[in-house]
Amino acid sequence: MTRSLEAAGAASGAASLPSLNSLQAWFQSVSTHPVSVSDGIRESKFGSAVRVESDAELPRLITAGPRMSAGERMEIYRASFAARLVECLADDYPALAYAVGEEAFSVLARAYVVAHPPREKTLNYYGQKFAEFCLAAPHLESDAPQPSPSFLADLARLEWALVEALHAAGAPPLNAEDLARMTPEQWPMARFLLNPTLRLLALDHPVNAFFQAFRAEQAPAIPAASPLWVAVYRKDHRLWRVELDPARFALLSALGEGTPLGEALEHAAEHSAVAEGEVMAWFGQWIADGFFTGLH
Predict the structure, then answer these.
(1) Does 164 fall in a domain?
(2) Is the Cβ–Cβ distance between 207 and 158 less than 8 Å?
(3) Are 70 and 185 contained in the same domain?
C-alpha cells in the first residue's frame, strides 16, 4: 500500500510522503506546545520533514471539520494536554491551591507549564520545580491578598516531599537486633543509611500545621513565619509527617550525609545538650518508623 501511494505521488509530480515517525513526532511537538498551536508549528524542529511550517499549511495534514478549521481542531488537543498538566499540579499541590485560591492557582500552574514543558515520559515528577517557581510569584494576580512567595515555596516543598516519598523505591528497614550487635567501641564510627523514602526539610514557615488543618477541612489561615524542621516518610504503605527539634534534625541530616554517629552527635549538641538516654529514645523511635535501612 505504501509503495503504491509513493508511486502515485511520484507519477503526479508530488513530493514523497513524510514518514510515519516524522508525522508522529511533529504532531506530538505541536499538540503539546504550552502556548499555542501556531507557536508549536513555528518552533517544531520536525516542520520541514512534514512540510508544515505555518498555520496556512496546516490543512495539508489536518482535515478541517464542518464547524472548525484545522488549527481549531489541533487546539483541542493542545489545550487538553495543557489542562492535564494543570490537573497534575493540582493533584500534587492541593494545599497550595487552597492557599492561593482556585483561579490564582490556575494562573500560577499555567505559567509553570509555559516555563517548564514536560521532558519526561512520566508525569510523576513533573512538578518537581514548582517550589522554586513559586518564589517568583508575579504570576499571582488576584483581587484577594496572597500569601508570600516564601510561604508558598515552603508549602510546595512539603507537598513535593510527600510526592517523592510516595514514589521512592523502598528498602528493608534496619531492626533493633542489628543495633544490639554493635559494641560500645563501634558506635562512634557507625554510619547509618537513611531510607530512600525519608525526606528532611528545614523551612521558614509552619506549613505542616497548615497542611494538617487543610487535610482536616478546617479552612486554615496563612500563618506567620516560624522555623520548622520536619521529616516526611513512607511506612506501611502510608505517608507520615513528624516535626523535629533542631538537634534531632541536625543529627538525622548529618547521618544522611554519611557522617559517623560520633560526629553527627556533635552537630546535634551544637543546638542543645543531648543526653545519652535521649539519643537512645530517638533511635528507638526512628528504628520503629523505618528511618534507616543499613548500618556500617
Answers:
(1) no
(2) yes
(3) no
Q: Are 227 and 203 in contact (CB under 8 A)?
A: yes
Distant-in-sequence, close-in-space partners of 14: CB < 8 Å, separation ≥ 6: none
What phi, psi does 105 have (nearest 5°)? -65, -40
The angle at the Cα of 87, spanning 137 to 91, to the nearest 5 degrees, equals 85
Residues recorded for the chain? 296
Residue 44 lies in domain: 16-79
Q: Which parts of the chain register pLDDT below 70?
A: 1-17, 46-49, 137-144
Please answer whether residues 152 and 137 qualify as being in contact, where contact means their C-beta atoms are separated by less than 8 angstroms: yes
The DSSP bridge pattern shows strands 192-194 and 199-203 to be unpaired
> Is 238 among the domain residues?
yes
The pTM of this model reads 0.82
Task: Report the SS3 class of residue 191.
Answer: coil
Last residue of a domain, one of 48, 79, 110: 79
Q: Total domain count for the chain?
A: 2
**Same domain membership, residue 274 and residue 174:** yes
* Residue 244 and residue 252 in contact, taking contact as beta carbons nearer than 8 Å: yes
pLDDT tens digits, 15-68: 566 788 878 878 777 877 777 878 877 877 766 667 777 778 788 778 888 888
